[in-house]
Design brief:
Layout: H1 2-12, H2 14-43, H3 64-81, H4 86-110, H5 122-148, H6 159-194, H7 205-210, H8 213-231, H9 238-257, H10 263-293
Helix pairs in contact: 1-2, 1-6, 2-3, 3-4, 3-6, 4-5, 5-10, 6-8, 8-9, 9-10
């Protein structure tokens, strides 16, 4: 436990979070200007990359790069909030998949074909799906956060047991920081190695968009299962177990969305967040019911 108290602040303290936030913002700005410069250098044939990628055709698509770094920061925030609040940890999962869709919108904007055959063009249809999905997800996340902040009136009991559970989550969070960092480096290195600048060998956009995050959500599923198993040591309440199990199902649905494309992917993502919202709504009903049933009744004697 002494070792945990030494390592935890190094990775997940408030000061560390602020430093990482500042670094990410600077890197995001730098990445944006580099991407923009590459687009214009390619456009005016100053440098010929021989790349037929949508990411190098329009200056609007340069916004894709800073959003990618913002997503990395969101991954860190997800780990940061894991020991602090389970619902905030799940909320961050939903925010990440929503930001992935928003990031994709900037690519879609650069390739829109404004014609009367809007609903017959595949890319324009996908843009329609994504923009509607981002609005729906924004609202669902708002509702999920609202439900997650609800407090019940039940007295807090067995504080040492709660502290032990938090310490277990801290250990998991400390392990996840270097794990995801290494995963990101390996994924980025593999992607760079797969690019051939002498041919039109840039990875397809769908692959780039899912880069790292398909493996990321696979690991999150395993993390959610570990959290569920650990929670059995500290609670046997049915509604808590169902809530944690439901969130695993929600994460699995998000992971499945990376294996498909088009409308099916969008429907899976919305279904995942909607399922998570339904789970927490029912969980809160259970909490309210249990709270009201445990309130002491006052009996008055007749004079």
């Amino acid at each position: 436990m002494v070792l945990l108290n030494k390592i935890y602040p190094v990775f997940l303290s408030e000061n560390t979070k602020k430093r990482i936030e500042k670094v990410i913002l600077y890197v995001a700005l730098l990445g944006f200007f580099i991407h923009l410069a590459l687009i214009f250098l390619s456009k005016f044939n100053i440098i010929n990359f021989h790349l037929e990628s949508e990411l190098f055709k329009n200056p609007i698509s340069a916004i894709y790069t800073p959003f990618s770094f913002i997503l990395i920061y969101e991954v860190y925030l997800l780990i940061y909030y894991l020991p602090k609040s389970f619902t905030t940890y799940i909320t961050k999962q939903y925010e990440i998949i929503t930001l992935i869709i928003i990031r994709k919108l900037f690519k879609d904007l650069s390739g829109l074909q404004l014609t009367s055959n809007w609903f017959e063009i595949k890319d324009d249809l996908q843009f329609t799906y994504d923009i509607l999905a981002s609005i729906v997800l924004f609202y669902l996340i708002f509702q999920f956060q609202k439900q997650g902040k609800r407090k019940n009136n039940q007295p807090k009991i067995d504080v040492p047991k709660i502290e032990r559970f938090i310490n277990r989550k801290k250990i998991l969070a400390v392990f996840l920081v270097p794990t995801f960092f290494i995963m990101a480096l390996i994924t980025f290195s593999s992607w760079l190695a797969s690019i051939s600048f002498t041919t039109e060998g840039l990875t397809s956009f769908e692959t780039i968009n899912n880069l790292f995050f398909d493996e990321f959500f696979t690991v999150l599923i395993l993390v959610d299962v570990v959290l569920l198993l650990i929670s059995f040591f500290y609670t046997d309440k049915f509604h808590k177990i169902i809530r944690n199990s439901g969130f695993i199902v929600s994460t699995i649905l998000i992971r499945l969305s990376f294996g498909v494309s088009g409308l099916v992917s969008t429907v899976l993502i919305i279904s995942a967040v909607l399922f998570g919202l339904a789970i927490i709504l029912i969980h809160n009903k259970f909490e309210t019911n249990n709270s009201s049933s445990t309130k002491p009744t006052i009996k008055f004697k007749r004079l």
